């Protein structure tokens, strides 16, 4: 099979497509013929030396969508021919930028008919992240107001749809261009994150009960300033290692709760993926595929996910 691999850390030029043996699933594993793989910033961490890969050479990629090729002797939940999507690979095991990938059953769920493979790959990691943040960590209530920073990004545009499906009032930030599309995804209020009066505008839109923050180092003080009493902030990312409150008084005033999370700590990925599948099947969730690449363009895809502004997700089609 063809697979993208890197033999050493470095720039995107260390990624190369190689012919390698097709993996054989262990008794508790599933072999998936990959049709599409999502592209995420986390896919670049091992290649850039920010995280130790489980082995060299390494295939990156956390997300996949495809068809079950075969299953191990102990697997009962899946069978050859099943359409599936999944996430959580590429960290302690080989990833998904390949024609075939081996996954555990708890990393997979069935992909509904009518949902394309690129859409399945696009929604997996970001969908689990958004669900875990809003539902599991924040306990978002239908009567509450939810602020989602960066509503046009990979996680953000899915989080907008999940919050809307939950019945919350959805406030989000985005640039002017991408913001025009967000009401169609369920956003009630869309604000340009570059406006000078953003804090006042967020308060006017309604102090949020739940805040999804993808840049804690930039927005944590803003979160405290605009939050409703007893608000819950869930942090899913940052651009620099340092983050904190310059004025802790505002956070204390609101009795703010801050939770930090990583999608890779999800106890049962398949449980959340199955719930995302229900939203997909019901038409309540529609991931936006901004651009597609083939395996030979994996380096360009990783450069783009780190450096380009896009609405939705980048996907590699196999």
TrEMBL record:
Q: Which residues form the Enoyl reductase (ER) domain?
A: 10-316
Query: SUPFAM superfamilies, alphabetically?
Result: GroES-like (SSF50129), NAD(P)-binding Rossmann-fold domains (SSF51735)
The record ties this protein, via Pfam families, to:
ADH_N, ADH_zinc_N_2
Q: Which GO terms describe its biological process?
A: small molecule metabolic process
Q: Which sequence ranges are marked TM in the entry? A: none
What would be an example GO MF term here?
A: anion binding
Entry superkingdom: Archaea
The answer on whether this UniProt entry bears the keyword NADP reads: yes
Q: What are the record keywords, sorted?
A: NADP
NADP keyword on record: yes
Q: Which PANTHER family match?
A: QUINONE OXIDOREDUCTASE (PTHR44154:SF1)
Specify the protein name.
Answer: NADP-dependent oxidoreductase
Organism this protein belongs to: Salarchaeum japonicum
